[in-house]
Design goal:
- The chain has 340 residues and is α/β, with parallel strands linked by helices.
- The protein has two domains: 209 residues, Alpha-Beta Complex (DHBP synthase); 99 residues, Threonylcarbamoyl-AMP synthase, C-terminal domain (Rossmann fold).
- It contains eleven helices and 17 strands.
- Strand 11, helix 8 and strand 12 form a beta-alpha-beta unit.
- The termini are far apart.
- The structure holds adenosine monophosphate and magnesium ion (MG).
- The site of magnesium ion (MG) has 3 residues, from loops.
- The site of adenosine monophosphate has 19 residues, from strand 7.
């Protein structure tokens, strides 16, 4: 199949692909998504095939505004509308009870559904023109780092989808925050651009799912099914080194072997002559790190580095999301340096 490249203004052609049961690469503020008409079970099944995604890993339904929640969700708590008021349109997905109209393939048979109202203007225009909720996971092949620009998505999906829309690089760079509102207290299932601090400012108490910060043991089941899979991983194994940036940089310099790669804060990019270096952004700019993290990990796959070392921000603000993606890319292989 030839994948048609569309521009930001080709809204009608993009919407027609969705309405006709096709697969569309869609820019969002978080990452590029692989979208299909969320009410068309046959179209949604093709998402799983194109990505090689396990059938038990549900998708998110993207809607143009919070008024659409009632079409697809039951028993919506007032907290959902408070969150929508505060953070929609934006990088936050709410888990709510679903109505029967949502096809089983979207929710992987769960009785809950993930709902998000994205802010990217191109994405919003396409959903509105299509007039249907758009089911979408990230637009990478299953297991790979999520794509944050059109070229990265085409690396994985060229020839497997009907079209892709170029909306420029993603402004957030990590997938949406997922908050489960079907339990008390609400539970953070995946950190993202809407931070834990942001959620607590609206909801009060919020629990953090253990899968966010540590490896699940055998027999343990994270509530976001996607979190049990190896994820975001480049081909080479990754070791994350946590702690004060100058100390982690020095630690990596002492331990790195010939040929190995580094993901580091910009300030330390000159410290590894002869090594492949990918910059995460300035040590103090976690938003830049979120925008760069997937691209940095992806870049190593076109090299033959046998191993990758990575610096990592602290867990405040969007640092929790950056740290979560790096930890998962590393299979939670983390070295924590003690405070000096
Ligand atoms: P992706 O953005 O590519 O990671 O795909 C959507 C993510 O949302 C996956 O990690 C899913 O496990 C998660 N998700 C979608 N629906 C639900 C749900 N009903 N309950 C928990 N997690 C969900
Ligand atoms: Mg994904």
């Amino acid at each position: 199949m030839e994948t048609i490249r569309l521009g930001a203004a080709d809204t009608e052609r993009a919407a027609a692909i969705l309405r006709e049961g096709g697969l569309l690469g869609i820019p969002t503020e978080t990452v590029y998504g692989l979208g299909a008409n969320g009410l068309d079970g046959t179209a949604v099944e093709r998402i799983f095939a194109a990505k090689g995604r396990p059938q038990d890993n549900p998708l998110i339904l993207h809607i143009p505004s919070a008024d659409w929640l009632e079409r697809y969700c039951a028993d919506i708590p007032p907290a959902a509308y408070r969150l929508a008021e505060a953070f929609w349109p934006g990088p936050m997905t709410m888990i709510l009870r679903r109505k029967p109209i949502v096809p089983d393939v979207v929710t992987a048979g769960l009785d809950t559904v993930g709902m998000r109202c994205p802010s990217h203007p191109v994405c919003r225009a396409i959903i509105q023109a299509a007039g249907v909720p758009v089911a979408a996971p990230s637009g990478n092949a299953s297991g790979r780092p999520s794509p944050t620009n059109m070229e990265d998505m085409l690396e994985d999906m060229d020839g497997k989808i009907e079209g892709i829309v170029d909306g420029g690089p993603c402004s957030v760079g990590v997938e949406s925050t997922i908050i489960d509102l079907t339990c008390v207290p609400p539970r953070l299932l995946r950190p993202g651009g809407v931070t834990l601090e942001d959620l607590r400012s609206v909801l009060g108490e919020v629990e953090v799912d253990p899968a966010v910060t540590r490896l699940m043991g055998p027999g343990e089941h994270p509530k976001a099914p996607g979190m049990k899979y190896r994820h975001y991983a480049p081909k080479a194994p990754v070791t994350v080194v946590k702690g004060d940036p100058a100390r982690t940089a020095a630690y990596i310099r002492r331990h790195i072997q010939a040929g190995e790669g580094v993901v580091c804060f910009d300030e330390f990019a000159g410290d590894y002559p002869g090594h492949t270096v990918e910059r995460l952004g300035p040590a103090a700019d976690k938003a830049a790190q979120a925008r760069n993290v997937f691209d940095a990990l992806r870049a190593f796959d076109s090299t033959d580095v046998p191993a990758i070392w990575s610096q990592c921000p602290d867990e405040g603000g969007i640092g929790l999301a950056v740290s979560n993606r790096l930890n998962k890319a590393a299979g939670f292989h983390i070295i924590t340096l003690d405070e000096a």
